[in-house]
Design a protein that fits this description.
By secondary structure, the protein is α/β, with parallel strands linked by helices. It has two domains: about 80 residues, Roll (Urease, subunit C, domain 1), CATH 2.30.40; about 290 residues, Metal-dependent hydrolases (TIM Barrel, Alpha-Beta Barrel), CATH 3.20.20. It is about 25% helix and about 30% strand. Strands 8, 11, 12, 13, 14, 15, 16, 17 and 18 form a nine-stranded parallel beta sheet that branches. A hairpin with a 2-residue loop joins strand 23 and strand 24. The chain is globular and about 65 Å long. It binds zinc ion.
Length: about 375
Amino acid sequence: MKCIVNGTVLLENGAFDNLAVVFDEKIEKICDAKRLDLSEYEVIDANGKFVSPGLLDMHIHGYLGFDVSDGNEDDIKKMAEGIVKNGVTAWCPTTMTVSKAEIEKAFDAVRTLKNSQEYYGARILGVNSEGPFINAAKKGAQAEEHILKPDADFVKKHKDIVKLFTVAPEVDGAKECIESVCKDTDVLISMGHTNATYEEARKGVESGVRHTTHLFNAMTPLSHRSPGAVGAALSCPDVSCELIADTFHVDKGLFGMVAKLKGDKLCLITDCVRAGGMPDGDYTLGGQPLKKEGIKCLMPDGTIAGSVLKLNEAVYNLWENSDLELYQAVKCASLNPAKALGEDDENGSIKEGKRADIIIADDKFNVLMTILGGEIRYKGE
Ligand SMILES: [Zn+2]
């Protein structure tokens, strides 16, 4: 049995010093460190740093030169291993709007890995299918030729592996698709890459939309006479919102306001692409060229093409640019997405009975150690 002591432990309801976290594969107990006989445990000294739940990235396409949409199992394994260094302990490999055959190949690869129960890195919860049921007017970096009319049967066919998918609620066939998927599955329905008016987005929510794909990006903006999809997402209390908190996709001046409005419905994501964790240079996204320069990824015409954000950096950016306490910023990248996905029984917080997915991070939220299911899987300098 292991035990972490001497850190500031970030729980669901606050940050606490003097606590010990005792765990095997699961978290056994959280108690006053003074009441434990430490000689009975394998002790991990947090050295005054933060002891945080492992992070959950529900929207990530690629990392370290690999891309989920390539449909290659080994690549997805390497991504799972790579993101552990960023404190990510659970994730949803995310597909792009590529051809249906390529999407299904990627689903199959993720399905095989998930069902194998093999242990290689951050745990796969299921696929995030971004598109192909989107609006060409807000395609962003998604390939227009592969956009399809919303099709509930496609989602239902893959409901064993798809955790969430993006649909533009205003396009032809979307209402029927949303209602049918909502009735027959637990798949989370997200509005995104959408040209919906405020009213159309609200109708989507009435039909069953409960999530928003990267709030602000690739959707109708909020203005005072036309609140758009952004206005609908912010004003519907049942709808969770993804945010790419890299300070480039969304200005940091909005982070605190969005956090106040959405509370425990705010989910930090990376939307990271193949170029993530790699040097500046030329890469591709969904078969299209992109250039990475610092925190920016742009297509030749200047379209923003995903990010190279790391989820621990997103937590720090939100914390730094809002009134949130660190434990609250961490929740936006752990418990909130776990709840949105219906995966919070085992994931998302340091709590007795949950999986021992724990990270130790410094005051810039750099990850120093990642523990996955009770085992140390990453240790920095
Ligand atoms: Zn994306």
